[in-house]
Amino acid sequence: MSEQSLPDEARPEYAAARPEDAGALPEYAERVLEVAELIPPGRVMTYGDVAEWLEEGGPRQVGRVMSLYGGAVPWWRVVRSDGVLLPGHEQRALGHYRAEGTPLKEASRAAQGHLPRLDMKRARWDGGGRADAHI
To answer: I need a labelling partner for 111 at 20 to 30 A (CA). Which of 16, 24, 90, 100 fits?
Structure first.
């Protein structure tokens, strides 16, 4: 994904271009991470859900923020809309999902790696009535 599709404040070079903000987290990234922290244990939001909640950006921008800055928040709660576990992080995410009781769909024997998927109908969180309390 190109950094050019990120809002200006979420682009790493944009933050670095302003010496007074050097090392500071871009404002858009802060907002994305704050939403990730709101998601209750055992529930998930898709990248698109987070963008819709913020009324800014889109799934790719949220995914980019999560890949760059998401390590300090419950990253496993921001997911793909198809419920497939994050490639390269499947086992770590699966451990979190099982510990939190996140609804999963067991994989068929034909599924690659026999990994379960998230049961998006049951696991997806809509913000719990906080739609008016945008960050």
So the answer is: 100
